[in-house]
Amino acid sequence: MSNFKIQNADREPNLGNYIIPDYVKRTVAVDLGSNLCLFEKKYHDRFDEIFYFEANFSNFLKGTSRVLSKGIKNCFGFNYAVTDNSGDIIKIYSANSMDSGSKSILNHTGANTSDYHKIMTISLDDIFQLLEIERINYLKIDVEGAEHSILMNCDLSKIDFIAAEIHNIMGIDKMDEVRNKILETHEIVSQIKAIPDVRNEETNFKLRG
Q1: pLDDT value for 63
Q2: How far apart are CA 68 and CA 2, in angstroms?
Q3: Dihedrals φ, ψ of 9, to 5°?
Q4: In the predicted model, is pLDDT for residue 51 greater than 50?
Q5: Is the link from the previous residue into 196 a cis peptide, with omega within 30 of 0?
Q6: How far apart are CA 133 and CA 190, in angstroms?
Q7: Among 32, 148, 157, 206, which lies 20 to 30 A Cα-Cα from 126?
């Protein structure tokens, strides 16, 4: 059954290995999969504005509470699941691991399919319209396997820098497709892979040219 609740038993996440080079403009950052807003707390002084999107109801409320309690004025949140299409209603599942950062819209082996709630979707293209922006200077994306549906049909040339966690819960082939899609317009700045037991990779890309 649908389950809107504050999940206090979740394990606290760790912030990924994101880098923000000096050449990245300060204007707009977008955070897809903000979890408990660790990125916002750490980097809010680096950007004029950060817009964050978190699909899980509990994570969104707790993350926003932390942003407000710190007096951060330039971070603005939205409780949407980002996918390839806007306006759908889908499920987001808790994780069997009880890790707040592992909640996912994918029904995979690590998902607790009996513990979910439903959420409205928005596409990356429509995020540009929602925020009334033409470019994203910095895109952080950590969406537990939804990165394939988000990125594959988007014009990524409108994004200057992409800091992506690419997850193997969607399969190795789709990991390759996501990476190759970004490489059509960007080049790799840094990459961390978990080897030999690949769970995900953390890769930073800058726009070519």
Answers
A1: 96
A2: 28
A3: -85, -5
A4: yes
A5: yes
A6: 27
A7: 206
Tell me the backbone φ, ψ of residue 60, rounded to 5 degrees: -60, -45
Which two structure tokens, joined as six digits, stand for 134? Answer: 């033409």
In order of 29, 65, 120, 180, the CA distances from 59 in angstroms are 19, 10, 15, 30
Q: Does domain 28-207 have CATH number 3.40.50.150?
A: yes
The residue to which tokens 């710190």 are assigned: 70
Domain-wise residue ranges, the chain: 28-207
Percent of the residues in the chain that have a pLDDT greater than 70, as a whole number: 91
The 3-class secondary structure across the chain, one letter per residue, is: CECCCCCCCCECCCCCCCCCCCCCCCCEEEEECCCCCHHHHHHHHHCCEEEEECCCHHHHHHHHHHHHHCCCCCEEEECCEEECCCCCEEEEEEECCCEHHHCECCCCCCEEEEEEEEEEEEEHHHHHHHHCCCCECEEEECCCCCHHHHHCCCCHHHECEEEEEEEHHHCHHHHHHHHHHHHCCEEEEEEEECCCCCCEEEEEEEECC
Q: What is the reported pLDDT for 1?
A: 45
The dihedral region occupied by 141, where left means phi > 0, alpha psi between -120 and 50, and beta the remainder, is beta
Decide if 155 contacts 81 (C-beta within 8 A). no
